[in-house]
Design goal:
six-stranded mixed β-sheet; five-stranded mixed β-sheet; globular
Length: about 1000
């Protein structure tokens, strides 16, 4: 009996659990984020390929963090085709024999400190509409895909492999069955991968592969080693031999190489070594000779790994690097591209030359895609790729608010969240240089702080864009200051007049950076073995502050107490002060106790506005080869921590953000996605909402006034999810209801904040504004399977104002009321479209009832419509006057349409007997009299769309429409014209009634 009771109890519990609504992004499908971009400065491009058969109009573009984009118009417009998958792209290739087949290798191979990883190979057989994962999941970085032009089943993939750790998943891979299975055909060791591959297009069994030994740590980079080399195979990769003749003495670093498609024995290579140089071979790679080269040809070989030859001219060689260089004499001399048109953004990584028309060249750089029509001499910029790589985002409190952010290799920027005509490229303003990182507005609304690599920071006056350098400097009391590549500069959450920056010490300013006070000791581990950045780079010294270590990485002031400040470092320390810096407590050991590796970077700290002891922090350990998602919570001010984990997490963690209204709603941004929880972290789900599913989410903010979630991605720009209050309102009680109508915020009676903004510049990226009027929002526990939904708006007297169709989605549903009554019906018979039938008077201020009708049930809510106090051109009295006059016009307009209906009915009755009508002149005469009245009432003739009539109805309709859209007091002529056109109508109405009486009295029609 006891066992039976337990069994029944478990069944009941199981039933209750299953009955609960599972929270996922599908509940919020109607809440779609706006992609602000920008494409003004775009972002790093990693791969390019085009379809030769359609004259190069179809181009595929791989990006560092923005997925794959496709253009079918030679770059005039583009669309993303890889939003459900890893956004870091290392290589792509089109099967030119079957151009609907495209291969994508994920994991960028430009091995800088901020490079993201991939999760293998993907294939599409329908031009990018659908994709299938086809293996090599653990390679992390893929640099090249080569398809045998004579055999589409034969594919080669080069995998440099893991950047931060040893890995056996490196080398050169081959598939003989179009990606179904893979075989590793060249492998050196766990530290050395395959960086490049060439195939002789005339003899595809001849291959050249370059291997590359490299490694990054959080505090160093080494490019080069004895594992690097150049290898040749003459049997499709079955056997290999190393090429050495004429090449420099090892160790090598990365080798970039190419051959001339029209003469494959002509080969070129840039070999990273102790004396990096350009090498040329004229015998198919057997022997090489050194050739003197300019700085651009040999600069940063680990990062600039592209060299190419014109498909038809073996002497025309291209080197995209810091600049774009080209040779016309087989590599013996180089010239640089012209600065006419659009000079290419420095740091170039991809090139595609149209084999059918080699004058056309596409180049991908850190700033986007450029196209040349004259073989690389001059260039044009493609303005429609919003793949900008933000590190952080901030906002101000203006109306509308602005967003601010710093971009990889593209400075610091600001843009409005809404603007006349929407937000196009021109709305973005540059407010700082260098590699933009933290970009933060001051509370004064006039000033912005920006920081670029190595702690170089400025204070800029927005109105003039004049800047002052404000970085704290070393004093006699300090060690040499250590500034992170991504140095934090933040304003206070409790006191926004406080400004903080961090080296290994924390500095505070209360006068906008004019003076600084050091308020901490060294808060890092100060490990001297991790402070040898001058030795970084390996064969190519590359000390750009990217390897600076033992530095402060994140700073957070409590929103409840400005004396409480938390600081996290890049070497695992998490410390706080409760007395504005006088004393500090290190809680890093407490964090390690919950299972987070002790050396992990503290990537963000979120101090709760609900509870001073509630702290969230994210940690990332990927620079030690560990890509786990580390997130922890403390409810006792840091004494103890609980790691928060979920099976849905992907990617290492960048930012945790707590909602401003619901303490249990949290958002987490990782290197591979945006996640949320509604129950304080017990259950998580991936957010999609028109945001790529594996976006590199670097920062999150929630605007306190608009409740917008602002998402900064490192590869797809800024997204804004407007007004997340429906999400924050989804308590357990709401989730368990069958139907729930959310309370509506006050609706401001207005046509909107903006008017016409002018046309967008053609070819650029642009995004629309958020809806000005908040929607009527309701929730369905389950999708409505039968019946329909409608929404009724009733005034305070219960009069029906407007009925709108509803949606039936599971989860959140939104319906937008235009704040108007129901438009009038329009009589037929005119030769013109009457636009009065599309508008109605805006309602007056008051409380309105919202009825959501779900089959036979009604769910009710209230909404307050309020006068727009910000509009100084329209007082409340003016609004009432406009409303009254609109109603006056509506009475006349409805009467006129009724008269027109009656005229046409009488005409139809006069014509009911066609034989009698043809014979009876009286019938025809009265018909013509009616037609004359009709012709005076409304347009009945039209010669063209540019030459038509405007009669009484058109005048009243125009006047009515103007009053419906009026947001200022009407002028005297507008009011007077109401009487004039009303009188004109009533004259015709009298004529009509007279005619109708005559027709009926003479029994010309049957009644």
């Amino acid at each position: 009996m006891k066992k039976l009771f337990i069994f029944i109890f478990l069944l009941l519990v199981s039933g209750l659990v299953n009955a609960q609504t599972k929270v996922s992004s599908s509940l919020f499908g109607v809440m779609e984020a706006r992609a602000l971009g920008s494409a003004t400065m775009s972002g790093r491009i990693t791969a390019l390929d085009g379809i030769v058969a359609d004259e190069g109009k179809t181009i595929y573009i791989g990006t560092a963090g923005g997925g794959v984009w496709k253009s079918t118009s030679a770059g005039a417009s583009s669309k993303p085709v890889f939003d459900k998958y890893c956004q870091s792209i290392g290589a792509l290739a089109i099967d030119q024999k079957n151009p609907q087949t495209i291969y994508v290798g994920t994991g960028e191979s430009n091995m800088r400190n901020s490079v993201s990883i991939g999760d293998g190979m993907y294939k599409s057989t329908d031009g990018g509409d659908n994709w299938k994962k086809i293996g090599l999941d653990s390679t992390e970085h893929i640099s090249k895909i080569v398809i045998n032009p004579l055999n589409s089943n034969e594919i080669y993939v080069t995998a440099p492999g893991a950047l931060w750790s040893d890995s056996k998943h490196r080398g050169l891979y081959k598939s003989s069955d179009a990606g179904a299975t893979w075989q590793k055909i060249l492998y050196i060791d766990e530290k050395t991968g395959c960086a490049d591959l060439l195939m002789d297009p005339m003899h595809p069994e001849i291959l050249f592969a370059s291997t590359w030994q490299f490694r990054r740590t959080p505090y160093s980079f080494n490019s080069g080693g004895n594992g690097s080399g150049l290898y040749k195979s003459e049997d499709s990769g079955k056997t290999w031999r190393e090429i050495k003749n004429g090449l420099p003495v090892k160790p090598f670093g990365r080798i970039a190489m190419c051959l001339a498609p029209s003469d494959p024995k002509q080969m070129f290579a840039i070999v990273e070594s102790n004396n990096t140089g350009l090498y040329i071979s004229s015998d198919g790679g057997e022997n090489w000779k050194s050739q003197s080269a300019s700085f651009n040809i040999v600069s940063r070989p680990f990062y600039f790994s592209t060299i190419a030859v014109d498909p038809k001219d073996p002497k025309r060689v291209y080197r995209p690097a810091l600049n774009f260089s080209f040779s016309t004499d087989g590599g013996y001399s180089f010239a640089d591209a012209s600065y006419e048109g659009a000079p290419i953004h420095p740091d170039m990584h991809a090139i595609w030359i149209n084999p059918a028309s080699p004058n056309v060249i596409y180049v991908g750089s850190d700033g986007g895609v450029y196209v040349s029509l004259d073989r690389g001499v001059t260039w044009q910029y493609i303005h429609n790729l919003p793949v900008s790589q933000f590190y952080h985002v901030a906002y101000d409190l203006k109306e509308p608010y602005n967003v601010y952010g710093g971009l990889q290799d593209n400075g610091s920027w600001m843009a409005p969240s809404a603007a006349p005509g929407g937000i196009g490229n021109a709305r973005w303003e540059n407010v700082g240089g260098g590699d933009g990182f933290w970009t933060v507005p001051d509370v004064d609304g006039k000033t912005v702080y920006s920081e670029y690599q190595g702690g170089s920071m400025s204070r800029t006056t927005i109105s003039t864009m004049k800047s002052e350098f404000i970085q704290p400097q070393k004093t006699v009391a300090d060690e040499k200051l250590r500034w992170n590549w991504n140095t934090p500069i933040v304003t206070g959450a409790s006191n926004p007049g406080n400004l903080y920056v961090g080296a290994q010490y924390l500095y505070k300013s209360t006068d906008q950076g004019r003076n600084w006070k050091r308020i901490s000791p060294d808060l890092t581990t100060n490990d001297k073995l991790k402070q040898k950045q001058e030795d970084s780079g390996g064969l190519s010294a590359d000390n750009t502050s990217a390897e600076n270590h033992c530095t402060i990485f994140t700073i957070s002031e409590s929103p409840l107490d400005e004396k409480v400040i938390w600081v996290g470092t890049d070497d695992g320390n998490l410390q706080y002060t409760i007395d504005a810096g006088t004393t500090w407590t290190n809680v890093s050991a407490n964090v390690a106790a919950c299972g987070i590796p002790s050396q992990s970077w503290v990537s963000s700290i979120e101090l709760s506005k609900f509870d001073k002891n509630l702290v969230y922090a994210t940690f990332e350990n990927h620079m030690y080869g560990d890509h786990s998602t580390y997130l922890a919570k403390s409810t006792d001010g840091g004494k103890t921590w609980n790691r928060m984990n979920s099976s849905v997490f992907t990617g290492f963690a960048h930012k945790i953000k707590q909602d401003t209204e619901n303490r249990d709603l949290l958002f987490l941004g990782t290197e591979m996605g945006l996640f949320a929880t509604l129950d304080g972290g017990s259950n998580w789900f991936r957010m999609k909402n028109k945001i790529p599913e594996y976006s590199l989410v670097r920062d999150l903010q929630i605007h306190p006034r608009t409740h917008d979630l602002i998402v900064a991605t490192h590869g797809r720009g800024i997204f804004i999810l407007d007004d997340i209050r429906p999400i924050s309102s989804l308590s357990k009680d709401v989730l368990d209801k069958d139907v729930y109508v959310f309370p509506s915020p006050d609706l401001v009676l207005s046509q909107g904040k903006f008017g016409y903004g002018g046309p967008y510049v053609q070819g650029e990226w642009a995004v629309g504004n958020p809806p000005f009027t908040p929607p009527i929002t309701y929730y369905f526990k389950n999708r409505l399977s039968t019946g329909k939904v409608s929404i009724d708006i009733l005034d305070e007297k219960g009069k029906l104002i407007q009925t709108m169709p509803g949606t039936i989605l599971k989860g959140i549903n939104k319906v937008y009321w235009n704040l108007r009554e129901t438009p009038p019906k329009v009589a037929a018979g005119s030769t013109k479209v009457d636009y009065a039938g599309f508008t109605a008077p805006m309602v007056l201020p008051g409380t309105y009832t919202v009825n959501v009708n779900v089959n036979d049930k009604i769910y009710t809510s209230k909404v307050n419509c309020i006068h727009d106090e910000s509009n100084k051109n329209l007082s409340l009295a003016d609004r009432k006057l406009v409303y009254d006059k609109t109603q006056e016009l509506l009475v006349v307009y409805n009467s006129l349409n009724s008269t027109l209906d009656s005229i046409m009915l009488l005409q139809k009755q006069l014509q009911s007997d066609s034989v009698a009508f043809a014979k009876n002149k009286k019938l025809k005469a009265k018909y013509d009299d009616l037609q004359k009245v009709k012709a005076d009432l409304t347009a009945t003739k039209q010669k063209s769309v540019f030459a038509d009539e405007k009669k009484i109805r058109e005048e009243i309709s125009s006047l009515y429409s103007n009053f419906c859209g009026m947001e200022s007091a009407p002028n005297s002529t507008q009011i007077e014209s109401i009487k004039f056109w009303s009188d004109e109508y009533y004259k015709q109405q009298i004529l009509f009634h007279k005619l109708a009486t005559e027709i009926k009295s003479k029994k010309l029609i049957k009644t």
